[in-house]
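Before the break, one more example. Copy the sequence into your notebook; we will annotate it together after we see the structure.
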Amino acid sequence: MPSDRKVVLVTRHSRIEELIARFHTPDQARFYVEHLGADFSDYVAEHERYLVARRTVESALSSCARVQLLDRGFLPTYLFAPDDVVVALGQDGVVANTLKYLDGQPLIGVNPDPRRYDGVLLPFQPLDVAKVLPEVLANRRTAKDVTMAKATLSDGQVMYAVNDLFVGPKSHTSARYELRVGSRSEIQSSSGIIVSTGLGSTAWMKSIVTGSLAVTQELGGSAPPLAPGPMPWDVPYLCFAVREPFPSVATKTTLVFGTTDVKTPMKVTSLMPEHGVIFSDGIENDFLAFNSGIEATISVSERVGHLIH
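Here is what the structure looks like once it is written out:
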């Protein structure tokens, strides 16, 4: 007998669908791809495998519960019910983008094409859903807790992140702000600040740390014996790094890497008259304006993600 609980299936557009939305017809999309020297058949194969995966998952879900299809583009405006079960049909970015809009609801990550995607956040394949979903509906499946980040602006706006928050300029210009962590503070000019969760330690933060270590070695400095590895997903703190800090008479570069938590939140006050932004998990078009006088308080969120495994 189907459950009374609703299951929300979050899907994404394939590359072909995105190209058709841009160029209006499949033939024009094909011409564009092949004109650039790319293999259009790979786009077709990806699209067809995703459709097969979606049909398989939809069928399994429909046999157990009411199903609501949701394109990932509508996540910012969708209101999830407290007892919803959510299924995200890969890639990893779809899982991360979905999780930050949830408040305790369990999330099942499904890999539509294991030959194409590694799927760190996608432990299940489409055929697994028929077994996994009944166990989740009956509360017999465990979940991994995921610490989330939260940015709260002085005007009341809030943004959550599963991987990381970016604080800085909207385009490739310099950001200017005052950064405060605990008793330390300084005015900085940089290309922005990355604040990472444990889950995000293998994402943007990893590239920043890797690049910094490589530059240090090339300049003759000594690198640490072991580069920082991935952090557990449930660590009770966030890690921050300032990108390309610029020293000057008016700006400093001593507070460029560290951690922040509930007891010691990070506070950033914008000194940018325009084009300052805060966005999360790489979704640049979903941002908070961060211009002169606005203060952002960044710390561990009261929300905890629950990723079924």
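The chain is about 25% helix and 35% strand. The first strand starts at residue 3 and ends at 11. Try to locate both features in your own notes.
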